[in-house]
Each structure stands twice: as C-alpha cells, then as structure tokens.
Amino acid sequence: MAADVVGYSRMMAADEAGTLQTLKRYRETVFDPAVAMHGGRLVKLVGDGALVEFASVVDAVRCALSIQRAGEASITLRIGINLGDVIIDGDDIYGDGVNVAARLEPLAEPGGVCISAIVMESVGNRVDTVFRDGGDVSVKNIDRPIRIWTWHPRGDGAATPARSGASGPDQRPEEQASIAVLAFDNMSGDPEQEYFSDGITEDIITDLSRIGDLLVIARNSSFAYKGRNPDIRTVGRELGVASVLEGSVRRAGNRVRITAQLIDAGTGAHLWAERYDRDMTDIFAVQDEVTRAIVDALKVELTPSETRRKRLVDAPTKSTEAHDLFLRGREALLSSANTKENFELALASFTRAIELDPDYAEPYVGLAHAYNRDFQNKYTGRPDSKDLSARFSAIGLEKGPDLPYAHYMAGLVKFWENDLEGSAASIGRALALNPNFALALGMRGLDKVYGGAPLDAVPDMERAMRLDPLMGHQCFHFIGTAYLVAGEYEKAVDAFEERIRRAPTTDLTRGMLISALGHLGRIEEARRVHGELKDLNPRYSFAEHIARLPFSNPADAERIRDGYASTGLDD
C-alpha cells in the first residue's frame, strides 16, 4: 500500500511548522492506528508518503478504506494498492510489486483508493464496498498496461473514472461539513450555573448531530478543551474538523444571554456570530436559530424531511424549571466523576423534573441511564436496578418515540438482558434519528462483537473513533475483542496494546491482552502484563470479567478463556 499527501508542497509553503504538526497528529490518530489494527507493517516514510506491507490483501484494502473513511479535514491522501512479489532487503522491500503500487497511488482521487486488477480479483466480495472499473492505463516505467479499479467515500463506488495522471494540487474532494462545539463559557458569575452552560452546549451538539449531512464531534472530545482557551486551528487539527463553534451563556433570573461564533478551523476567520437576549421560555427557539444559522453558514444540504420541518429543534417541555432540572441531572450523570453522589443528584433531578412535567420524555430516559449505571457500578446495592432501568426506558420511549437517546437506552437495556437482536434494532433506530451518535455506533459494534459477527464491528468502532477521537481508546478495547473472538490474535494484541498506550491504567484490556498472548504462545509477555494488571487492581478476576459479557455463542467466550488458561496464570 502506497499513500501520499495531496497538496503537501503547497501546505508546507504556507505553514511549514503547522503542516508538520498536523501530519504528525494525523499519523498518531488515524494512519498508524489503522495500519496496526489491520496487521500492516510500516516499511518506510518518504517525505509526505508512506509504504506499508500486509500479509493479507484483504487487510490492505480494509486498512485503506478505514483511513479514507475517517474523513480527516486537514489531511487528504491518495492511496494505491498492489499485490505481487517483493524483494526483501533488511527492513526494506522493493521490486515490481512495490513499483506498481507507487504508480497506482497518483491515479486515485484525492481521498480515494486505486487498486490493481489482481487486488480486485483477490478481494472479491470480502470488503463492504464497491470499486469502479477504471479501465487499462499506462504508467511510467511499467512495460504493460494495468487494469485499475477506483473507490471514493463520496458514494462508495460512485467515484469518477480514474485519470491517467495526478490531480493538480488544488483539486480536493468534496468534504463533508464537520464541526466541533466547544463548551460554552459560564458568564453568570456563579460556578453553580456551570451545569446550565454545559447543558446548553450539549443540547446544541445533539441538535446539530441530527443533521444527516453534517459530521459533529461528540461531547467527550469537544469538552476536553474546557477551561483551556485553545487555538481554534489546533482544535481543528486535533479533532479533524473544518469549523468550530464557541460561545458563552449568562443567566440572570428569568433572562438568558447566549453568544455564539462559528470559526473556520483552518484560518481562524469568523464565519458567523450572533448574540441572543431572551426569556428562559425562549431557550429552545434560540437553539433552533443557532442550529439553522450554522447549517446556513456551512452550506449543509438538508434532506427533504429536514427541509419540511418548521423547526429543527422541538421544545421537549413547556416547563423551563423541568428542563433546568434535566440539564442538572444530565450533567451529573455525564460528569467524569462517576460517583454515588453524582448518581444521587441525577436521580433527584430527574425525579423532580418528572413531577413538574409527567409527559417530559428525557428525564425518564435519564432515570433509565442512571439505574443502568447503578446496575453496573453497584452504588446502592439494590437488586432491581436493571429492572428499573428497563421500566424507565420503556416509559421514556413511549413519551419520546423520536428521541435518539431513548432508543439508545432501550438498546443498552436489551444488551444487558442478552437480547442482542433487540438491542441492534433499537440502536439502528437511534442512528437513523442521529447519524452522529458516537455512543450508539459503539453500541452497534458491541452487538456485533457479542452477537457472532465480530469483524463486522470494526468499521462501526472506527467511525465512533472519528466522531469521538479523544475517547477512541475505548474503541481499541472492543476492536481488540473483535479480533480476539475472530481468532486474529496478532491484530488483537496490536489493538489492546494501543488501548493500553492511550489509557495506561486499564485493567480489563490487560486481561484480554493476556488471552491473546496466550493463544500466540507468548507466555513471558503474558506474565509481564499479568504483573502490571495485579499492581493496578489486585482484586481483578478474569472469570468474573468474562462471565458478565453477553456472548450469544458460548464458544466465543470459551475461546477467550482458553487463551488465558494456556498461560498457566492463576485467575
């Protein structure tokens, strides 16, 4: 696989230091992890290009598709793939097989992939996309015509025919509009109002996420910049977005002032700005105006159903106090401090919101989420937490049938009830309503991992990482689990080690890594990892860990147990 950055010379001429930093970040967050997950070996870097070797042609194609589907705004690649014999010289490779890959790369569209006919024949229908026949082409230093096939993410097979030469440096693919919404500053002069400014930000993220043709970064990643006053261009590079929304909220009595400004992440230029002074009763109207203004500024094309809607943001309740309580409860639930105190605050807030408006769907879903947390974390020790989660989930779904959050919680409830088919159906509905729902994408991947189709989960996990890049380490755990269940142990080790590199204190991932190493016969490494695990969590039990995972096929769980047992380590 040969890859090259489009327009690299022009980018370097405009901003050498920034380009090098951007390219480094791109390799760390997109390119290198994709290569590792698909079993590739980075042979060498040549300026702005890279040469990667794979043992499997299917893995090579899947890796290329994963990289290009990531849709990075700041870096665009062309990728060429060939299958053929190579000459090995130390760590380097060369020969006709390598030369053809290098000649195919400039024939790909920016953001696309070009493969040779032998690759196409070898892959068959084992990848989830369609390549377009580009015909026979003649390339430099190759004495025969080469049949090529091309793909571009613009339409999975709808790419324009390949050309006989490279595009000009300014020719770029049509990129999906992308945005990150930073946590709005609390300007109320009262730290206790922080939940309100965060809640308004979360609502705007959710409102934008439901626009089908807009890529919206998840809250976890955009809130990582809270309190840091970052350079917007840095945010754009790190999160891979073309635009950033920032703002502030000032609340005084029954009045609220919201300021918002949309910034081009590439140049730092302001695209749109507005200030809203309204009564609290108008808060949902303000959110609708902000959403529409961003859609207009980014020239996002609405679907016919979105166009027909009078408002993009519906008012979920007429009670401003109930909404305020829901925001307070949700912030407690989403807090990084996953404590019993925050659980109790969320419970009290949601319960009071329901008393004020019994038809308000979101607090019921919030209660379902809170009791699901109690079931997993055992805050209260009550035996009916899972049942309460299911009960409130059903009520929330009944009162909010078009609420993505409600369908996600229904899917989570069914997951823990071992109803993976029902979970997948609920998660599918959540994603139909909100295609940017990173948690739902991850959940859909989990349904596949535990439901007997582990390799089908990898694209969902990769997409979830694109939407939530700073929390992507969790996806590496489940990608590793997918490969472990599928018996692809080397890839499982690569994914688990990447997760540990990003989250050094994880115990669960080390448990799974021991199993993968056991299958490979790497016993000494497994013992080293076991020592780390016991230092981190002396109470960890591999048997308990595996017992609570809802595998539909007992043989999948047994495969993981066998790998661990083969190390000879005590549970």
Plain-language structure description:
The chain has 571 residues and is α/β, with parallel strands linked by helices. Among the domains are: 2-151, 2-Layer Sandwich (Alpha-Beta Plaits), CATH 3.30.70.1230; 186-314, Rossmann fold; 472-571, Alpha Horseshoe (Serine Threonine Protein Phosphatase 5, Tetratricopeptide repeat), CATH 1.25.40.10. The protein contains 24 helices and 15 strands. The chain has helices spanning 8-14, 16-37, 57-69, 96-104, 117-123, 194-209, 219-222, 232-239, 283-297, 304-308, 320-334, 340-356, 361-377, 385-399, 404-416, 420-433, 438-450, 457-467, 473-486, 489-502, 508-519, 523-536, 542-547, 554-565, and strands at residues 2-5, 41-46, 49-53, 77-81, 87-89, 92-94, 113-116, 132-137, 146-151, 177-181, 185-186, 214-216, 243-252, 255-264, 270-279. The strands form 3 sheets. It has a 7-stranded mixed sheet with strand order 2-3-1-4-7-9-8. Helix 21 (508-519) packs antiparallel against helix 22 (523-536). The longest helix is centred in the N-terminal third of the chain and has 22 residues, at 16-37. It is globular, with a radius of gyration of 25 Å. The two termini are 42 Å apart. The model is unreliable at 156-174 (pLDDT under 50).
